[in-house]
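Tokens in:
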């Protein structure tokens, strides 16, 4: 730890840290053989087994999890300088090195002391500040900039009837919620061994981000029993639990049919149809508008019912899908899910159910990371199918005849002409942002994980190198690259950054571009893969660069200290932002048995105005989907062109091994 005078002194780690150290060392690629475990560690493992039993519940492992460690400033500076070396010249590198040395030997020591104090009393020294400053204090639009989306299975459609599909999917979501509430959802593990923090599951349902003038807040409700439904320009409340019991799928379908029919004759109130556009606007403007026009009466009541709902369901009249000969169909599907006109971007998640029975999700980012929603989607897509449909495509079963269900309620609004004008203006601004979005999905089915495994390499590292090669071919240079990894091995952990553009990856890319011999390229690729794997493991184990420097920066702001080094580091643009969507989290997923149920995963918008956002999912043995986003207003980026570069890069690398 850091002494009050800034010098490093030895300190004994906590009992829990000592006990979990062998596991962390194992995930870091270091030796931690069973016969080297101390009696203390063995005793701790025995106690944990007794506490959690043979069937651990969702949260039973939370108290057994270690705290996220605080790296030393010198370690973080060393790692940072290694990550920027590939794309800066000698003179610039020397300047950055001097800045880092000054910070390490000066202000950094003082900031680190305060950070250590915070790490002692908080469960996680990063996560609360990350939520507060990165998400809730952000004032820009959530649409495209923050929210993300998830798509349905492309090849399989269990029914063509929209009301039936939505009813079954709602039933599956309610089962997922019940499993969370009762803690019967199995806890998550990394590599089948290391428990992952599951705190984020608690805010999956009935959660809304409430706009505020300076910093938004997250509201979670425990007593919600309804879903907010949007159909044909009107809002309705669908009670999914009535009289103490949950509605069956066929009962839900009949309620949804009632909404579909009523919405064709009901007249929309002024401003109601486009009201959701306000959630896509600048946060402070939305907060001011909300306080002025929705703080009393019918508007306050109806808005509260949307915000309190379990989730929002949107009935869309378009018919998306996948057609190899018409790639625009899949691209438009993704665009609708990322920035659709009727999405309530403040909600923890929205379901969009289309006229042809397809489904998609849009999720707000502050309350949890994408691994939670991808797990929910994967489980619910499969449960939805298992519930089944009759021969005509309707939900199975018959409604109970011992209870007459009340129809869904229409939400009432009293929106002033002035407010209607503001809603229209915000919708026009949203349309401009949507027009600037360039989004394309590449379905790479020439080969997938099956071939990559024959190369004896990490599939994620393999794909990251392909992205580096593609970006170099597209832009003619290397750039700072963001890859998201998780820190859920620690209590309250969320994410860390893997800076995946390394000296080793650059050497490999240059060798491929220069058509060096296969043997040399293979050797360079192996070194790059090993380096990437090391960085990923270090990030998972709390030894990343960016979250530590972010927290040091927050401390500096609290103290009123200016750090030229931290300001420069944290303002560096991520012109290539990447993330892998996990697959196989569900207990019912078997892509070998049901290959047509493979999901295309999901995606997000570009982080930099002149950069790319790339999300990918390794779906089974033979499919990899790449979701590529950028901005039309940037003359140097093009999603379709970059997708073709990815395809070329994947083929170039395959040719090295065939």
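Residues out:
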């Amino acid at each position: 730890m850091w002494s009050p005078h800034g010098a490093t002194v030895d300190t004994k780690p906590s009992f829990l840290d000592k006990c979990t150290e062998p596991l962390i060392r194992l995930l870091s690629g270091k030796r931690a053989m069973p016969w080297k475990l101390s009696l203390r560690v063995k005793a701790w493992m025995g106690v944990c087994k007794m506490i959690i039993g043979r069937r651990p519940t969702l949260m039973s492992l939370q108290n057994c999890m270690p705290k996220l460690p605080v790296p030393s400033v010198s370690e973080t500076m060393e790692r940072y300088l290694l990550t920027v070396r590939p794309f800066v010249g000698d003179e610039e590198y020397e300047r950055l090195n001097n800045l880092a040395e000054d910070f390490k030997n000066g202000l950094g020591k003082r900031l680190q002391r305060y950070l250590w104090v915070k790490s002692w009393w908080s469960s996680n020294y990063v996560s609360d500040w990350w939520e507060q400053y990165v998400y809730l204090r952000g004032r820009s639009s959530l649409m495209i900039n923050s929210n993300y989306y998830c798509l349905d299975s492309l090849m399989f459609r269990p029914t063509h009837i929209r009301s039936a599909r939505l009813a079954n999917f709602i039933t599956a979501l309610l089962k997922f919620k019940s499993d969370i509430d009762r803690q019967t959802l199995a806890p998550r593990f990394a590599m089948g061994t290391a428990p992952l923090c599951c705190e984020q599951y608690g805010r999956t349902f009935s959660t809304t981000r409430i706009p505020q003038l300076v910093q938004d807040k997250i509201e979670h409700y425990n007593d919600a029993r309804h879903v907010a439904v949007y159909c044909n320009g009107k809002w309705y409340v669908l009670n999914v639990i009535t009289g103490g019991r949950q509605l069956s799928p066929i009962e839900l379908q009949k309620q949804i049919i009632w909404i579909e029919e009523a919405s064709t004759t009901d007249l929309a109130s002024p401003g109601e149809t486009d009201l959701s556009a306000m959630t896509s606007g600048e946060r402070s403007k939305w907060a001011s508008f909300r306080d002025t026009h929705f703080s009393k009466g019918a508007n306050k009541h109806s808005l509260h019912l949307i915000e309190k709902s379990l989730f929002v369901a949107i009935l869309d009249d378009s018919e998306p899908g996948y057609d190899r000969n018409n790639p625009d169909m899949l691209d438009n599907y993704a665009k609708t899910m990322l920035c659709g006109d009727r999405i309530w971007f403040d909600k923890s998640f929205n379901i969009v159910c289309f006229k042809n029975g397809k489904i998609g999700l849009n999720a707000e980012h502050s309350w949890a990371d994408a691994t939670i929603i991808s797990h929910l989607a994967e489980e619910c897509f499969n449960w939805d199918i298992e519930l089944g449909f009759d021969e005509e495509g309707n939900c199975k079963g018959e409604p109970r005849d011992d209870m007459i269900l009340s129809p869904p309620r229409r939400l009432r609004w009293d929106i002033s002409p002035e407010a209607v004008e503001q809603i229209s203006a915000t919708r026009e601004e949203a349309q401009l942002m949507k027009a600037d979005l360039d989004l394309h999905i590449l379905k790479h089915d020439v080969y997938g994980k099956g071939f990559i495994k024959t190369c004896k390499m990490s599939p994620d590292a393999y794909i990251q190198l392909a992205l580096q090669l593609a970006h170099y071919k597209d832009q003619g240079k290397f750039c700072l690259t963001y890859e998201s990894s998780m820190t859920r091995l620690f209590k309250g952990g969320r994410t860390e950054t893997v800076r995946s553009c390394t000296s080793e990856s650059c050497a490999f890319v240059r060798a491929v571009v220069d058509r060096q011999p296969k043997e040399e390229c293979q050797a360079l690729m192996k070194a790059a893969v090993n380096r990437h794997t090391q960085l990923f493991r270090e990030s998972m184990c709390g030894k990343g660069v960016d979250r530590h420097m972010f927290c040091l920066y927050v401390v500096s702001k609290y103290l009123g200290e200016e750090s030229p080094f931290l300001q420069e580091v944290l303002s560096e643009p991520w012109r290539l932002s990447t993330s892998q969507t996990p697959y196989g989290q569900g207990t019912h997923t078997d892509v070998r048995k049901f290959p047509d149920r493979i999901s295309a995963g999901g995606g997000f918008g570009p982080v930099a105005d002149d950069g790319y956002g790339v999300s990918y999912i390794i779906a089974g043995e033979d499919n990899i989907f790449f979701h590529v986003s950028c901005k039309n207003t940037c003359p140097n980026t093009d999603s379709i062109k970059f997708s073709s570069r990815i395809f070329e890069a994947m083929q170039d690398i395959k040719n090295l091994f065939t």
